[in-house]
Amino acid sequence: MASDAHLAVQGLGKAYGPPGHRVEALRDVTFHLPPAKVLGVLGPSGCGKTTLLRCLAGLEEPDGGEIRLGERVLWSKEKGIRLPPERREVGMVFQSYAIWPHMTVLENVAFPLRVRGLSEREVRQRVGQVLEMVRLTGLENRPATDLSGGQQQRVALARALVAQPRLLLFDEPLSNLDAQLREATLLELRAFLRDLGITAVYVTHDRAEALTVADHILVMREGRVVAQGTPEEVYFQAQDPFVVGFVGRVNLMEGRLLAWEPQGRARVELAFGVWSCTGPGALPEGARVLVAVRPEHFQPRGEGNPLLGRVVSVAFIGEGYRLEVAPREGPPIRVDLRVVDLPRAPQVGDALELRVAPAWCRVLLPS
Amino acid sequence: MRAAVPLLLLVVGLLTLGPAASLLLGSFSEGLGTWGPFTWRKYAEVYLDPELPRVALNTLAFVLGASSLATGLGGVLAFLAVRTDLPGKGLVLFLPWLPMMIPHVLFAAAWIMLLNPTNGLLNLYLQELLGLEQGPLNIYSLGGMILLEALLDLPIAFAMLFPVFLALDPALEEAGRVAGGRPHQVLLRVLLPLLRPALLAAFFLATIRTLGAFAIPQVVGIPAGIPVLTTYIYRIISTGWNPDYGKASALGVVGLALAMVLAYLYRWATQKGERFATVTGKGYRPRVLPLGPWRWPLALLVFGLLFAMVLLPLATVAYISFLPYVVRPGPEAWEVLTLANWKWAVQDPVVARALGNTAFVAVVGASLGVGLSLLVAYVTHRRRTPATALLDLLTFLAFAWPGLIVGVGFMLFFVQTPLYATLWALVLAFVGTYLPYGVRPMNTALLQLHRDLEDAARTAGATFLATLRRVLLPLLAPATVSAWALLASQFARELGVAAVLARPGSEVLAVQLLAYAHDGLWGRVAVLGLLLVLLSTLLLAGLLHLAVRRRSPQAPPPQV
Prior knowledge:
Chain A contains 8 helices and 20 strands. Chain A is an alpha+beta fold. Chain A has a 6-stranded mixed sheet, sandwiched between helices. In chain A, strands 2-1-4-5-6 form a 5-stranded antiparallel sheet, with helices on one face. A 5-stranded antiparallel sheet of chain A has the order 14-13-12-15-20, covered by helices on one side. In chain A, helix 2 (105-115) runs parallel beside helix 4 and helix 3 packs across helix 4 (149-161). The two termini of chain A are 44 Å apart. By secondary structure, chain B is mainly alpha-helical. Chain B has one domain: Orthogonal Bundle (MetI-like fold). In chain B, 72% of the residues lie in helices and 0% in strands. Chain B contains 23 helices and no strands. Chain B has helices at 4-27, 41-47, 52-83, 104-115, 121-130, 142-167, 170-178, 183-212, 215-221, 229-238, 245-275, 295-320, 331-336, 340-347, 349-382, 386-397, 403-414, 423-448, 451-459, 464-493, 496-501, 509-518, 522-549. At the A-B interface, strand 7, helix 2 and helix 4 of A face helix 19 and helix 20 of B.
């Protein structure tokens, strides 16, 4: 079932509302997704990610730009091409699942094949295959609404897959599942998509979901693409403070750039001392900057920049502790420590000396 | 689909604005029954009529009296059914179905048989019992009119208030009690203010119905010498050789305007009610109030009311239908027992024609009405443009218009076309007048259908038409069936519009009923009325059977 379709989106724009009160849902959205890869589109609600997905499906019409899938143009303002949804060869899993309540499981899943006019024998055979893939064999004749949330979700997936689409679209497919089921389903879905080798776009506001499932990440804000790359690139190397904060927990500390050192290291003066950090070389010395450090990058020992302070709050979260540590000057800093790295449970009021390697301290330009 | 919007605007505009515009034009026209040279004379004549102030006062008293009584009784019944341990309260739930069954003229006739001052059956019994010279009660009075109209509109108030009581979060009252309020304080300061918008909405809906009411004012009010707006207009167009539709229009224009004010108030009250967080759609278990020693007396009262609304009138007309004149049940009645009325109904060619016409108007009208409602509801739901907003407004406009007045508008309109005096004139006028009642259940159903259900079909490879056929229509089937039933039974009984438009050849049962009631041929009224009840029951039963046999599952419960 592997898809060889390369998805290319160029300069996509879309605005809603009456003149004078236009809301720009998409502004010049451009990206490429290689065949058989999964793109995770991440952003806060109202950032335009669902509009983007609906434009890809053909459920909404952009104002300008171009969408290509493989060698076919799906939509192009310039070329005057606008394929309706039913001719785009896509499959889509909706947030609400959109399981048709008047049909059985079989009828739901067979629908895409039947509207394509396949013979009933072939319909049965292919529905059987795809139901086996999503582990729903035996439930064919149940009314689709009798199923549990997780099962309905798999019916929706089976229905999206059954016609062998060239592009699979997911609109927050897991947001209606409870937390435990969500995690299990997510890992299963990831393995499933890798095995199938299908080109897919997965929209979510949940960073863990996006990082887990996707080969490539697109972060959107107010209709614009603000970061893209592999999950690691976006997580570790993003330059936009919004993106850095959106894809994971982070401390953003205000400081002043003192000087550049060899190997791209920067000396930055923070409220409680001077740290050695990494960052883009283009910044002038003396500039006001932000230093981003993720809480999990602090360690109780070893080399690196020192953080001396008192514990002001402790939260035990199972695999470790979430602390807030107040340095001599400046606001408290969030620190995550693993249980195995600590001699005993930390208490409020404890004095701690922590270290963080310069590689994890990244200089950002304030936005 | 985009091309459908202008077409729908045209059709709906013709059906709603058409009669209103015709009425306005007609009211300024010199000619009788046509649009002709401009004149103010009709207004002058009709508004300087010395009888008019009395008509206005009658109308005011009738509308306010019947609406208040209907809302009050409906509210009490809804409260008893939801919040108390009233015995047999499940029966009360059938209430909303009842007005769909009984033609209003038949209801009036039954109560005239029971409570007219000379030989009303109940009056005769009371007279004997109390040793009076004459019957103590007189149905031919303002009080009688108000009572009968209130009983007919009570189910509508009940149907509006019942779900409100059901959805009322008991925590709101419990919070009042915990905060230190005594039960009557909680009732006055929490419960009633919470219910005020819903009560107002039910009241305004009742005023809309009573302002447009025609059957009770005509059959009971005219012999009593108590004309109201509708019967006064009807008198203008039904007397003399050359009825003055211009004068009727001059009065009708004000009636329409008044109805629109009421419709606006109704919408204001319902929207206010929706803003209150009480109706969340969450199913609360209502707190049941034990009635204690009041249980059985209240039950007796409630079932007495239900008895007075259905069984007593139906039994009375069934009894009368076998008599040549009104006789008390007893040996004397046994002697004069006759099948003459039924024989007449079977043999009379006009009855057969009216029966056929009624069935035609109900079936064809309901089908057209439901089809149009479906299209209008779909288009206004899925595309929010100025054009669809206008369509929405046009459909709502006709919501409160009294049938008799709209009928005059349609009359002036159809006179210019070959449709005049045909059955199709009735069909089109019915569809236009009742469009809001068809669109409303469709709107509710479409609101519950998540848009994703349609989009899923499109991305699964179905064209728009295939999506319509395989997903939308099957899912809308329950709403379509109930809208059809509502319209069909309404069209079978419709009197106001039909009374103006029906002509020899296009008679319908409801209008024949009115004619025989006017002539005091109560045996014939009874037979025709029962035939009409039978026809609506058959229509509803057939449909219900269809709905049960291929029951469509409801939309899945929302998951959070």
